[in-house]
């Protein structure tokens, strides 16, 4: 009798366990359907109001994708639907998915330290004002470096020395650029720019090559750019330009080579710099109609002008990817650097970089990663990054959710900030986490 009773109890527990598991699955499915309905509604509204021409979105957990969808078209002609294999210009998401990932790998292998100083590693900065800036300061944006420098404008001039841009449209300034208008008489510096391929010159656009002799002037300007209080938070593209120089000098390898080593280990191929080297132009989303520098609709080349100057491979921008490739990286990070049983990054390094080491000073930034002061949309445990072109990815290991939204909101112009005024991405992030 006791054996029979014991067997009944065991069988009951087995059925209870099955019931709990299926109940959890039903909840996930229910949440997913509710979230998908919400996302579809948000996207329909965004496309109708012209937030962006097209988008990819993935919602997932540390183990699998829950929602993976494409919306809209490549541009407003509506001739080409967005497909899963299409790649978007990630803009500043490159800071995390490129230079920061490589830095995490090197830190885990003991090849670079957060206390390393710029001048110790990169000889050209040894006796400059930025010599003792640390890798930690660069990654947390507490270096004091000015937010950006428009290096490319030094390559442009006008015959009568009139301004390159005006805030008023006129016969001399007919074409728009951002919220300004472009001088119709702009001249390119033939010493440094060529519209034909030249030996050892760097291709910066499909019909533009840069004389590498221009780079010393770029580095000189960076070396005198720490014009703000050190130790205070100030987001700057220059920080990641320096991180790139530090890791390339340390490894004697180029950033694109270093990132590709990680991507290959993860088994992802729709991600990288200079996309026309690894995918067709038909699979690249267009960005801005550039009436100023490149005089073209940017497609297949990086939108960011600083990254363009460096041949499309930069610490601040330059990566292109589809959402599926980024989803793999999210799963790896959410599983403490492990993906499908392979330890890509050291767990302690992932934790260190995705924490907020300066929270006591009111700085919530991670190391490379964007983190936010808790508000109605974000918690202290969220980490990820956004991009100027209209891109967003965030993760939370506690809620076991990640969200990737890729758009090309800068097509045809960067003045379109409707998705930001609407808190578009933040609202979706809040929605997919709210059941917790």
Automatic annotation (TrEMBL):
Cross-referenced Gene3D superfamilies: DD-peptidase/beta-lactamase superfamily
A Pfam short name: Beta-lactamase
Keywords tagged on the record: Hydrolase
Molecular functions (GO terms): hydrolase activity
Cross-referenced InterPro entries: Beta-lactam-related (IPR001466), Beta-lactam/transpept-like (IPR012338), Diverse_Enzym_Activities (IPR050789)
Domain Beta-lactamase-related: 40-417
UniProt-recorded name of the protein: Serine hydrolase
Species name: Flavobacterium humidisoli
């Amino acid at each position: 009798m006791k054996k029979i009773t014991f067997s009944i109890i065991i069988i009951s527990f087995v059925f209870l366990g099955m019931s709990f598991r299926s109940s959890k699955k039903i909840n996930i499915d229910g949440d997913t359907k509710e979230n998908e309905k919400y996302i579809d509604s948000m996207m329909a509204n965004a496309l109708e109001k012209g937030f962006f021409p097209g988008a990819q979105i993935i919602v997932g957990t540390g183990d699998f994708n829950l929602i993976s969808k494409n919306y809209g078209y490549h541009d407003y002609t509506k001739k080409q639907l967005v497909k899963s294999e299409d790649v978007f210009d990630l803009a500043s998401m490159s800071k995390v998915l490129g230079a920061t990932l490589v830095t995490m790998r090197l830190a885990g292998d003991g090849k670079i330290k957060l206390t390393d100083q710029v001048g110790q590693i990169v000889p050209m900065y040894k006796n400059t004002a930025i010599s003792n800036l640390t890798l930690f300061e660069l990654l947390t944006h507490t270096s004091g470096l000015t937010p950006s420098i428009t290096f490319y404008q030094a390559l442009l001039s006008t015959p009568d020395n009139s301004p390159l841009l005006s805030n008023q449209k006129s016969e001399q300034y007919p074409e728009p650029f951002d919220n300004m208008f472009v001088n119709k008489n702009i001249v390119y510096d033939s010493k440094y720019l060529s519209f034909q391929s030249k030996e050892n010159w760097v291709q910066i656009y499909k019909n533009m090559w840069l004389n590498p002799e221009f780079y010393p002037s770029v580095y000189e300007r960076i070396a005198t750019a720490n014009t703000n209080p050190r130790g205070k938070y100030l987001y700057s593209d220059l920080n990641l330009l320096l991180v790139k120089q530090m890791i390339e000098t340390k490894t004697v390898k180029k950033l694109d080579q270093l990132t590709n080593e990680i991507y290959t280990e993860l088994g992802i191929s729709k991600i990288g710099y200079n996309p026309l080297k690894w995918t067709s132009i038909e699979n690249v989303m267009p960005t801005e109609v550039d009436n100023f520098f490149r005089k073209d609709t940017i497609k297949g080349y990086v939108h960011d002008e600083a990254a363009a100057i460096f041949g499309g491979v930069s610490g601040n921008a330059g990566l292109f990817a589809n959402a599926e490739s980024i989803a793999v990286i999210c799963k790896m990070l959410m599983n403490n650097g492990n993906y499908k049983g392979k330890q890509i990054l050291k767990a302690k390094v992932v934790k260190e970089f995705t924490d907020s080491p300066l929270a006591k000073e009111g700085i919530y930034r991670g190391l490379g990663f964007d983190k936010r002061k808790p508000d109605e949309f974000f918690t202290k445990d969220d980490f990820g990054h956004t991009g100027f072109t209209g891109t967003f990815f965030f993760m939370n290991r506690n809620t076991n959710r990640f969200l990737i939204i890729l758009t090309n909101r800068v097509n045809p112009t960067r003045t379109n900030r409707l998705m930001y005024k609407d808190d578009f991405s933040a609202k979706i992030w809040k929605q997919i986490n709210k059941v917790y």
